[in-house]
Amino acid sequence: MEFVGPEGLRLDGRRPLEMRQLHAELGVVENANGSAMFEMGNTKVIAAVYGPHEVHNRSQQLWDRALVRCEYSMAAFSTGDRRRKGKGNRRSTEISLVIRQTLEAAILTNLMPKSQIDIYVQVLQADGGTRSACINAAALALAEAGIPMRDLVASCAAGYLNGTPLLDLNYVEDSGGGPDVTVALFPKVDKVSLLQMDSKMPLEHFENVFQLAAEGAKAAARYMREVLMENTQNLARLVTAT
Amino acid sequence: MADDVEVDAFKRLYPAQFLERYLDASVRPDGRPLTRSRPTSVSFNAVSSADGSALVKIGNTTMLAGAKLETMEPAADTPDQGCLSVDFVMPPICSPRVRPGRPAEEAYVITEQLQNALLSSGVVDLRELSIVSGKAAWMIYLDVYCLDADGSLLDAALLASVAALAHLQVPAICVRSEGKITKAPPDAQASSDGIEFTQPRRLNLGEFPFALTVAMNQKSLIADPTAEEEAILDTKMIVILNSSQKIIALHKAGGSTTASTATIQDCLALAMRRRKTLQKVLEEALRKSTK
Q1: With an 8 Å Cβ cutoff, are A31 and B143 in contact?
Q2: Which Pfam families does this entry report, sorted A to Z (chain B) (predicted)?
Q3: CB-nearest partner of B53 from A53, A77, A80
Q4: pTM over 0.80
Q5: How far apart are CA B1 and CA B7, in angstroms?
Q6: A79, B141: Cβ pair inside 8 Å?
Q7: Could you report the per-residue pLDDT of B59-69, keeping only the tens digit for each?
Q8: Can you tell me the distance from the alpha carbon of B39 to that of B269, in angstroms, rounded to the nearest whole number?
């Protein structure tokens, strides 16, 4: 199958190094301490953060830092075929772990000992890159909840098909049999928190694809920072108006 | 600042008295009169991966309903009928009280009430879902996700379900002579070679059911309670009506307040008023979406 046409355009009309359109909203769940909705093209996820609060299971309490929990689940209507079990299956459990570990590295957990922070992510529409969208949404939700972090984690994925590195694969491209490299990094210090790759790829191409994903993550980080700034400005306006 | 802390402390230590102070003045903590419902909005196409979807907000309570169609073999005793399967989910994002691994009790109760309301109201005529009698029919999977739980969950869930069904687009299919059914390509022409094509269509729905939750204590009725109000006033009554003022369902499950017949009549009156508002909101939203 041809993923990059003769004019150099992909199936959805993008160029190989072009990311999908990003859209984020903060405060979508009033009940939560912090929440965000993040869209990357047709992939749409909601993240909600509850915490820091008292640890529910006393035996799991950590004396010197906060306990971070994460649950990833997919809505039944999120994929092409209806998904009967959106959580508790292997894939969801793996992604929950990945998101938790990525964000735990960013949260200054030793500032909140003996407490618990819950991060819940719900995928509403899945079109490739759900892992990255979830990490981005969770980072925004944590920021909105005011939880102190080392840096704003941002993530993006890239692949390699038809001899070209492609940024931000959608579902069709992801199922194309080529490699899928997901990167999450701390943009300010340029350090990688998460790096995952599946399928096969020649060693000489890895550097390019990895750099591409890292650039994508930095672009996502710039957008996320803009959204947070705007949100803070709106809040400041409300406070000074009253 | 100190006053805020005192009010907050009073609210936490004596929640019942806190609410009573407001109710005695015929108003609620968020400023609403006792019988007014929160602003309600309906929007469509929230989820493009579903065949029909609706996002409903009643105040902060947010419900996302998605309907997906799959083909199935009809049951032997109802060869001309399809099926409607409803599932209501309260994921942990919706409330601090819902923890992963332990579904909220309310989720099961609301699933039951929602399924009963939709099936008994006849809003979907299952015979309309038949494709080939005895061989193939549509199964509608309706999944309702609570994204934010702030009271009156059944009201919002029912509105979201009805809206998603109204928005649902049955896809064009082609039925081959040997009984195989596949989605038709967008430019399919009329029947040839024993292959039948159908057009994409909306469902012909019956009368929409609408719900109103009313919390009560000995002295007053509080329409459309928030989660806070529901927690303090442990008694509530849910009335489900349709457009011809027929009662689809009534739920009152115990609670410390017992209701007289006058109270029930008052609840019904409140529900009738609310139904008119919800019908307008839904019809307006449908009109906007088909433009």
Answers
A1: no
A2: RNase_PH, RNase_PH_C
A3: A77
A4: yes
A5: 10
A6: no
A7: 999 999 999 99
A8: 19
